[in-house]
Each structure stands twice: as C-alpha cells, then as structure tokens.
C-alpha cells in the first residue's frame, strides 16, 4: 500500500491520487456483445442453448430450471446454511419493508388535489454472476426488494450449473422463473424475451465486463430494458483516527481487496501511527487468506492518505465518493451529518463491511466509481416508479384558470389555454 | 385522426397500432454533437462563445447573465405575469415540499441498526430550451425541486437572448448562476465545466435532438454528468366513456398536438358516439388555433381506438404507457387502482392536462416513449440520493456473526469472514 501525505500534494496531485483507474472498454467487447445480443434477438432459445454451450461449456437439459430442481436444492443444503440464509432474508426484508412509501396527497389550492402514487415495476430480471463461488447474498439483495415492491413477475438468470444456495434463496424470495443463462446472452434474453425467457422491464445485478456492456447496450435501446445503475469495480474507504483498532481496519481493507484485482482500497487517517500499524497488519493478515493472490494485486494500487484532521479526511472521502465508507473514530455517529457521496456507511468498531454485504439488512448493491454523487444505494424505489395524479373540482379549475391562461399565453400555447377556457365557458353557460 | 376497433385487430396489429414511431437517430447528429462536446472540453469558454455565435447567431457580452440583468427582467414583466408565475411557484413548491423523505431507522436484530438517509445532489444543471416562445414553466418544474431538495449549487443554461419570464423564475427559485448557452455546447459545459461554467453532477431538462444526444453522450462518460431520464416526443392518452364531454376531450387532444409534429395523441373509448363527436370537435376547434399547422401534422399520426369496455381501455393504456393519461369517465377516481405505466394522470372533467403542465403542483417533466414502465414523474427524489448507514453494537455483531460467517464461507470469501471473526476474538479475549 502506498502512503501519501495529503497536505504535501498540489491540488492536481490530490486529484490524480484519487482518480480511479479507467475501466477497460475495448471495441472488441462492444462488438462481441453486440453479436451475442443480435443472435439472441434473431434466434431466441436456439441461440441461447448454443451460446451457453460455447461460453459456459455445458448444454443444460432445459433453459428454465424446473420447480423440482429448485425444491431438491433445499434438501441438499445443510440446516446451518439454511438458517443463515433465512436470517439474512429476514433482516433484509425488515429493512426494505420499512422503505415502503407513504401515499402522498396535497391540496395545493382549494379544489386542486395533487397526489403521488407508487407502483411496482411489472416485470424485473435479476442477474447473478457465476464464478468460483456462488453468490446467494446477491440473490437476496435483488430478490427481496423485488418481492416487497410487489413486482408481478421476477425472473433470475445465472450461468449453469446454478448452485443450491442460489436456488434456495430464489425460492425464499418467491422468484417466478429461474434460467440457466449467463453473460450477455442472459441479459439479451431478459431484455427482448424468447419463447422460454420472459421479457422484462428492468434488469438488475452485477456482472463482468461482458454483462456490463450488454446491460449498457439493451438500456440504450428503448425496445430493450432499463437497468439498475452503471457498474464499476468495488471499493472501500476507511476514515480512522488514533482511537481505531489497526487489526480491524486491516481486516476491512483486505475484505475489500479480495473481491478482485481491480478493487479500490483507501485508508484516510490523521494518525501516522495508525497508518503504520495498518500497513503492518495488512501484511500479516494477508498471509492467512485463501484469496491472497487476488488481494495482493488489489493492494498494489491501494492507498493510505495521511490527512491533517478528521475533518479533512471527511472532505477527501466526500470528494472521492466511495461505494463503502467505514468510519472508525472516537464518535463516528457525530460525523454522519458531514458525510456525503457514499453508497453505504459503516459506523464504529463493530460494523465491518461484511455485515452489510450479507445480513444486517442494508443492500449491498451500491453505486461505485464515483456514481455515489448521483446514484443511490439500491432499494425499494428502484423496483417501483412514481406516478402523479391530479383531480380538480370545477371550483378548483376556476381558481387556477387565470394562472394557467397567463402562462400559456406567455409560452404561445393556444390550445393549452383553450383546454381551460372551453371548460370555464361551459361552467359559465350552465350557471 | 384514424379510428380503429381494437377487437377487430389481431394481436400483432394491436401491437403495431400502439408502436411509437422510431426517433430519428442519424449518425450525423452523433458526430456533430461529439465534435461540439470535444471542442468545449478542449477550448472551454472560447469554444462556447464561438459555438453560440455559430448556432444562436448572437455573441453575448458574457456567458454568465449578471445579477443586474436578472433583476431588470423582473421590472419589465407585467404584474399579471408575475402573479401567475408566483402562484404556480407556490403550488409546485407545496407539492414537492410534501415529497421530503422521512428519515428511516430500523433495528433489524438487537444491536443491529440500519438507516437510510437522503442527501441533495450537490450541483445540478438545468437546461431550458429556446424556440418560438419562452418556457418559464420548465424553469419552475426543474428549479423548484432543486431548491427544495437543497442542492448546493444550481445553474441554468438557455440559448440567448433569455426571456424575462425565465430570468424572473430563475430568481424565484434562487438559481445560483444563469448562462447564455444552448444546445450541445450548454450540456457539454455543464458536464465538464469551463472557467465560467460550473461543472455539475447531474443535468435536467428537455431539448431538441442535439441536446438529447449531448445528454446521452455526457451521461455515458463517468467523467461527465448524470441525466434525468431518456427523452422522447410528448404524448397523451385519453380514456373516455359515454358520459364524457367531446369538446373537452378534443381540446385536450389538441393541446398535446400543438406541442410538435411528432406529438402522440390517442383516444381510447368504448363509445362510438364519443369517437365520432371528438373527431368532429377536433376539426372544429383546430381551425381556431394559432399553431394549427403543427397540430394538424401531429393529428395525422394520431389515433382513436374503440375498445369493448372501459376495462379494456385501461388495459390498452397500461400497455401503451402514456406520458399523460386523462380519464374522463363516470367515476374516474375508482379506476385509479387499475391504472399503471403513466407519467401523470388527470381525473375527470375539470382536470385538463394544461393545469399540470403549468400550475397545479405536479411536475410536467415526465417519462415518455414507454419509459413510464420503469421511470418516474420527476420529483424531489431525482435531486437527491439515498445512502444507507449501519451501526452494530458489540452484542449486535455477536448475534449476527454466525450468519455472516456461514454465508462468507459459502461464497468462499475468507477475508469477509475474518473481518468478523477478528472482532469476535478480540471481544472474547477482553472478557
């Protein structure tokens, strides 16, 4: 880990230090994904089976996973695993249930009633990546809010073979259909539909560069599907003062670093002592990790910043806008009003990032790559849309008419004005 | 207006009838906008002045409008106009004020506290198109929620010369900086910043094909800026039964048609009589409009659909997903629970679309082009982002630890597990 002293840097150097590495874009990824998407649009299920054989090396008996297979998964799991998944489900459901919007109704002027109503997005598709280990936690993070929002149809794609843990959670979340599909072909299938795969309105979930590019492509086509948010490598920033425990900080930095070689890991502290202790603790703990090689690569580009004060550390964090922000200071709760541009914030010694990754209740799908400035932590709102409703009484229209008429005149929109005056005239003639 | 009977159409024909016309994309627009964006990124203010002279035919004294000029605008406006704008401001503020989120705090398990906090987006840019008449209503629809959300810095771009009505409303909404800028150059300036123009986090507002393309380009660049929503031509769908007033319906259809030749106008009714009456009334009222030519072009592609019942009319509307949905039936209020995929809904005889366009309180920036399935009516939420916060006590971590450890094991994430166990071990050794 590289250590820099913030005050010793010029403004340009400061910006450069916090600059995220560019995401490899590659025209070849764009073209490869575009070919996959076209092929799914053209040949439907046939293309899906061929692409799955090509990319995942298996040809599943059927694209859709049968209910029998889903039930069987549950029988193979240990009771301990099911209890853990059930507990996580319960906590996540509790926190997302609390996000249910209150209906809003306002009488802005007498007889002018304006409302905001929230409706679930009808059909949603969840993407769960494959890889070296299954990710049942991501199924929970997407499946629970979809269920609580009340989406009519929820489908899930994951590359085969799909792990028992994923199928078990899919059932917990009452997911309607599960498909043996990964990569760009899964995204294309959900965006456009095939004979077997349901077309969805919006697609959620993480993935590799191909999945990310496929999501970008289908979301740029109005016949395709919406997506949750832009994706980037996972990242953590820790703000710590001299009261923090260096072992805890090191463990938190490493739990981010093991995600992937491109993980971003930053510690900002006014304490040189803590900086030194953490550097040592990271090296010590690293030796014991099964994913040591991955973590080591991530650490190569990671950073310790010596700030002048906790206040300056906060300013640095707000500028960087981390996905995960861990605050290990004397009174972390007091700092919350000052914290901005973070996906999820973890306060104090006993709130490691991994509790939020799995089971505390908050969502682990968060904006990365500086998108925390404008995007939100995934929540119920992302599985819903807000519509407004208005109803005026005849008197309400009478009261509002002069305002509308004057403004329509200013904007030169004659018919807008007439839609009001024709009604007022009819009211007057009825009097 | 073309009239079709829904039941006489095949499923394919039904889909074709409701298909929106493709938006002209044109590689030449993409390239032209890309050149403008690059030039602003490279040459900053110098490029802005040159591009403004080229595209708007004027070279303003300065890019930024002075406070003196803004104050002077107010003096030139009639009292009647100011009163109308003030009233609209008041209603819109009241409705958006009511959207302020309640802070959310949940203890999911003893000692495990999860929160959701909402923060304003720091800096936002509002784009107000030029054209034949000024659009102060759009300034209200963007400026009021930005102000109420508490955005730190709000800037506005509009092509010069900027109308007095726009400057007056900019002042009402306490907008920080107003720039004499239109088109792709305005979007590029706000996305990347120049010596004069503040870089913003997110850009809002309507515009022509060039503005839309510029918004798309800067939102696809993580160094650029976020945007409000994808844009398409404005549209209305009216559901009416035999109790509706054909003159009112015709007036509403025409007020949509006058927006532009590409406006989408649809009436769905189970009453053949109403369909005939509306056809006549549209022709009659059309003759009296100042924007008759524009409305006539829009009407050429507009549609009356004869449905079997109001229930079927609702299904058609939900499938189409209109930006504006007007319901003129016997008991419109009773139908609300059945209505879905609409930007804003207008109930009954006395709620023409133009009240919502201007002054009732709801926002007139709405998803179009079928994006109502996944996007929301613009509101306070679009000027804010949600972050989650969590704080566990030592006991809370003890209770949650087995769940996290089991799940981290299943996902093969060793360091995630160790971030928990290292803390539990320290707690145990302190006992």
Helix content of chain A: 40-55%
What is the CATH-assigned architecture of the largest domain in chain A? 3-Layer(aba) Sandwich
What's the helix-strand series of chain A?
EHHHHEEEHEHEHEHEEHEHHEHEHEHEHH
**Main beta-sheet annotation of chain A:** 6 strands, parallel
Into which percentage range does the β-strand content of chain A fall?
A: 15-25%
- DSSP strand tally of chain A: 14
Poorly predicted runs of 5 or more residues of chain A: none
User: How many separate helices of chain A?
Assistant: 16
CATH evolutionary superfamily of the largest domain in chain A: Nitrogenase molybdenum iron protein domain
Largest interface: A-B, 131 and 131 residues
| Overall mean pLDDT of chain A | 95
User: How would you describe the oligomerization state of the chains in this entry?
Assistant: homodimer
**C-alpha-based Rg of chain A, rounded:** 26 Å
Determine and state the CATH class of the largest domain in chain A: Alpha Beta
Overall SS class of chain A? alpha/beta
Shape of chain A: globular
Keywords:
homodimer, 431 residues, alpha/beta, Rossmann fold, Single alpha-helices involved in coiled-coils or other helix-helix interfaces, six-stranded parallel sheet, five-stranded parallel sheet, 16 helices, 47% helix, globular, NAD binding (chains A, B), amino-acid biosynthesis (chains A, B), Histidinol_DH_CS (chains A, B), NAD (chains A, B)
Describe this structure in words.
The structure is a homodimer of 431-residue chains. By secondary structure, chain A is of the alpha/beta class. The first copy, chain A, has 3 domains: 2-20 and 232-361, 3-Layer(aba) Sandwich (Rossmann fold), CATH 3.40.50; 27-99 and 121-227, Nitrogenase molybdenum iron protein domain (Rossmann fold, 3-Layer(aba) Sandwich), CATH 3.40.50; 393-430, Single alpha-helices involved in coiled-coils or other helix-helix interfaces. Chain A is built from 16 helices and 14 strands. The first copy, chain A, has helices at residues 11-18, 27-56, 67-76, 79-97, 136-149, 164-172, 183-192, 209-219, 246-257, 272-286, 292-300, 310-320, 332-335, 353-358, 394-410, 414-430; strands spanning 2-5, 104-109, 112-120, 123-127, 153-158, 177-180, 202-204, 226-227, 235-240, 264-269, 303-306, 324-328, 344-347, 384-392. A 6-stranded parallel sheet of chain A has the order 1-11-10-9-12-13, sandwiched between helices. A 5-stranded parallel sheet of chain A has the order 6-5-4-7-8, sandwiched between helices. In chain A, strands 2-3-14 form a 3-stranded antiparallel sheet. Chain A starts with a strand and ends with a helix. The mean pLDDT of chain A is 95. At the A-B interface, α4, β2, β3, α9 and β13 of A face α4, β2, β3, α9 and β13 of B.
């Amino acid at each position: 880990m590289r250590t820099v002293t913030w005050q010793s840097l010029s403004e340009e150097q400061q910006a450069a230090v916090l600059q995220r590495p560019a995401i490899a874009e590659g025209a070849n990824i764009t073209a490869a994904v575009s070919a996959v998407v076209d092929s799914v649009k053209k040949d439907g299920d046939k293309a899906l089976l061929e692409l799955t054989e090509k990319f995942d090396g298996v040809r599943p008996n059927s694209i859709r996973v049968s209910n029998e297979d889903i039930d069987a998964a549950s029988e193979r799991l240990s009771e301990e695993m099911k209890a853990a998944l059930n507990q996580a489900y319960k906590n996540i459901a509790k926190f997302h249930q609390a996000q249910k919007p209150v209906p809003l109704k306002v009488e802005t002027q007498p007889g002018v009633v304006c409302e905001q109503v929230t409706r679930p997005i009808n059909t949603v598709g969840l993407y769960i990546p494959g890889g070296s280990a299954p990710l049942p936690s991501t199924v929970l993070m997407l499946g629970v809010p979809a269920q609580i929002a009340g989406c009519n149809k929820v489908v899930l794609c994951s590359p085969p073979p799909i792990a028992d843990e994923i199928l078990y959670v899919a059932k917990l979340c009452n997911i309607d259909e599960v498909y043996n599909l990964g990569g760009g072909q899964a995204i294309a299938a959900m965006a456009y539909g095939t004979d077997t795969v349901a077309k969805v309105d919006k697609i959620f979930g993480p993935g590799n560069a191909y999945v990310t590019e496929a999501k970008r492509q289908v979301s740029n086509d109005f016949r395709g599907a919406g997506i949750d948010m832009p994706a980037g490598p996972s990242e953590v920033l820790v703000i710590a003062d001299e009261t923090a425990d260096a072992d805890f900080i090191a463990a938190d930095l490493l739990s981010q670093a093991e995600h992937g070689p491109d993980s971003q890991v930053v510690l900002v502290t006014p304490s040189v002592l803590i900086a030194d202790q953490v550097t040592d603790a990271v090296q010590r703990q690293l030796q014991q990790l099964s994913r040591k090689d991955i973590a080591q690569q991530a650490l190569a580009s990671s950073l310790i910043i010596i700030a002048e004060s906790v206040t300056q550390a906060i300013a640095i964090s707000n500028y960087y806008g981390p996905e995960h922000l861990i605050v290990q200071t004397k009174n972390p709760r007091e700092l919350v009003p000052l914290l901005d541009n973070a996906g999820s914030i973890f306060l104090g010694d006993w709130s490691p990032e991994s509790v939020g990754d799995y089971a505390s209740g908050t969502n682990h799908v968060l904006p990365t790559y500086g998108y925390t400035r404008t995007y939100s932590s995934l929540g119920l709102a992302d599985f819903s849309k807000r519509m407004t409703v208005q109803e005026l009484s005849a008197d309400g229209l009478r009261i509002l008419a002069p305002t509308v008429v004057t403004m329509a005149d200013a904007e030169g929109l004659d018919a807008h004005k007439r839609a009001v005056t024709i009604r007022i005239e009819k009211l007057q003639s009825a009097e």
